[in-house]
Amino acid sequence: MFPDVVDLRSFYAQPLGVVTRRLVGRAIRTRFDDVTNMSVLGIGYATPYLGVFREECERTLAFMPGAQGVTRWPSAAPTLAALVDETELPLPNGVIDRVLAVHLLEMTPNAADVLREVWRVLAPGGRLLCVVPNRRGIWARADTTPFGHGQPFSRSQITNLLREALFTPVGWDEALYVPPVPRAWFLRTAVAWERVGHSVSAPFAGVHIVEATKQVYKPVPIRKRARLRVLEPVMAPQVAGG
């Protein structure tokens, strides 16, 4: 079930949300480091992370699911956000170069359908970047943050989900090693938590960040040809001569 967009906006306005945006945004930017002249689509509640791409890419869009609600984005410019059905995106085939999915796959009851729709709108060679809660992390158990709602994923689960939708994972990262403690003095240690977590490859990060590429050729299952029945010739009866 999607959280309300008002609650999502409120979270990112708080000190813990500000730290979250900085740490997760850094990992996102590392993956999508160059989007010059590309079209970038954010699905779910991705607007806290889309701002860095606006001046660089050709076009930026933010699609928010109907069950979640929509807010104006950006606030001081013509809106680029729209309320959509996440399983039926209002875009033609193959027009998007990069898709960023945040607060989406763990919330929607139709994750496989959503990914197939993302596959449809992505251009050949397009990339999808998913930010999903880690089921082994503390953030998935804290319902005071958006990452504590919905269905968290293990690494193998999100991999299988992407492959079934004809995506190939090509890069991994983790973020939010810092526990979700909203105290200001504790949040000042967030960067140190991230450095230690990355250096020891700790398994308790708050989120998985997986980059996947679109498989252009859809595999088609081979259907076995029906075995043909071979008819044996039968001699027609003849009248015995007298």
Describe, in plain words, how this protein is organized in 3D.
- The chain is an alpha/beta fold and 242 residues long.
- It is built from seven helices and seven strands.
- The chain has helices at residues 5-13, 15-31, 47-50, 111-121, 155-164, 184-187, 190-199, and strands at residues 39-44, 59-65, 81-84, 96-102, 122-133, 167-175, 207-214.
- Strands 3-2-1-4-5-7-6 form a seven-stranded mixed β-sheet, with helices on both faces.
- It is globular.
**Helical stretch tally:** 7
Distance between the termini: 92 Å
Number of E-type strands: 7
The ordered string of helix (H) and strand (E) elements is HHEHEEEHEHEHHE
Anisotropy-based shape: globular
User: What number is the mean pLDDT?
Assistant: 89
Fraction of residues in β-strands: 15-25%
The poorly predicted ranges are none
Rg, Å, rounded: 25 Å
Largest β-sheet summary: 7 strands, mixed
- Name the structural class: alpha/beta
Helix content: 25-40%
Order of strands across the biggest sheet?
3-2-1-4-5-7-6
Layout: helices, strands, pairs:
Blueprint (H helix, E strand, L loop, with lengths): L4 H9 L1 H17 L7 E6 L2 H4 L8 E7 L15 E4 L11 E7 L8 H11 E12 L21 H10 L2 E9 L8 H4 L2 H10 L7 E8 L28
Helix pairs in contact: 1-2
